[in-house]
Amino acid sequence: MESQAGPIRVGVFVMLLLIAATAHGQSAPARTNAPAALPALPGVPSINQTANPSDHPANPLANPLTSPLQQLPDLSSRENFSAAMQIIILLTVLSLAPAILIMMTSFTRIIIVLSLLRQALGTQQLPPNQILVGLALFMTFLIMGPTWQRVNNDALQPYMNGTLDQPTALQRAQTPLRQFMINQIQASGNEADVLLFIDYMNRGTDAKDPQTYDEVGTMTLIPAFVLSELKTAFLLGFKVYLPFLIIDMVISSILISMSMMMLPPMMISLPFKLLLFVLVDGWHLITGSLMGSFSM
Q1: Average pLDDT for residues 85-99, to the nearest whole number?
Q2: Could you tell me how many helices (H) and strands (E) the chain has, helices first?
Q3: CA distance 246 to 252
Q4: What is the DSSP-derived secondary structure letter of residue 44?
Q5: CA 108, 114, 115, 120 torsion: positive or negative?
Q6: CB distance 283 to 172 below 8 Å
Q7: Are 224 and 192 in contact, with CB atoms under 8 Å apart?
Q8: How many CA atoms are closer than 13 Å to the CA of 169, on its beta-carbon side?
Q9: Which of 77, 126, 143, 296 is the most buried (most CB within 10 A)?
């Protein structure tokens, strides 16, 4: 993590230098041609006379070296550097939030199962995508709540209070997320996905395979977790799809036996599938099974 924090600090420093240079470059250029002298009027002091510098207080903006507009913030001060880093981290998190949410949380499994459920019902665009994504998001917040609470208590709050530096805070923030991903991989029995990426990283080298998950890097653990979630989601989707597939087969057989081959089976089976789904309280069963499938 220290290797990643160094370039970030350097980038912030370079950005501040560029901002200061841009502000200096856009300042108004000094006039080189002096204005023509005006004739003196009787009883009025001439404005062409050179003023004595001692008669007026020094202008702090006259000297660009001492002007406060040309002074860069002291990056050695924790207050100035921390404020700049907070802005950079905030913008980075906002841009990477969708990827973080999809790759390192329970969102992947939930949205895939809900999408397969909609296809199994045959309702096409019902429920709408906004409804499914919103339900998946709130379920993700509920499932990931304890993990995010640990991140807040162990890393974010100590860093904001000034008791932790940035590399230590990032290292502590990774621990709960890594533990969540490891628990899901082990519960699904998909350790082979971790070995797949480890073997690729060690290809052409004499490095030994790690013996514990503590020796597995986060960049290796994340894609292995995504593969594990995809596999688990498709298995759950198959179980959801199976009863609706049976209804479609029964309806098709009845229509063929009645020589009603021109009648679309999907149009006849849809009311029966909706009726079955409502009678068994399908939404309750699906959401309960999804949340219960995660190992905490």
Answers
A1: 76
A2: 10, 0
A3: 10
A4: S
A5: positive
A6: no
A7: no
A8: 16
A9: 143
Confidence class of residue 60 from pLDDT cuts 50, 70 and 90? very low
For range 109-134, the mean pLDDT: 87
Contacts within 8 Å (CB) and 24+ apart, 220-224 = 220/194, 221/178, 221/181, 221/182, 221/194, 222/103, 222/104, 222/181, 223/197, 224/185, 224/190, 224/193, 224/194, 224/196, 224/197
* φ, ψ of residue 206 in degrees (nearest 5): -100, 15
Structure tokens at 63: 């000297």
> Tens digit of pLDDT for each residue in 146-194?
888 888 888 888 888 878 787 888 888 888 888 888 888 888 888 888 8
Per-residue tokens: 80 = 């100035």
pLDDT of residue 74: 55
Tokens of 173: 């923030």
What pLDDT, on a 0 to 100 scale, did the predictor assign at position 17?
Answer: 43
239 residue type, one letter:
K
- Three-class DSSP category at 57: coil
Q: Which of 227, 283, 228, 272 is nearest to 248 (CA)?
A: 272
Summary mean pLDDT of the chain: 74
DSSP string, 108-173: HHHHHHHHHHHHHHT-TT-S-HHHHHHHHHHHHHHHHHHHHHHHIIIIIHHHHTTSS-HHHHHHHH
Positive or negative torsion for Cα 125, 131, 133, 139:
negative
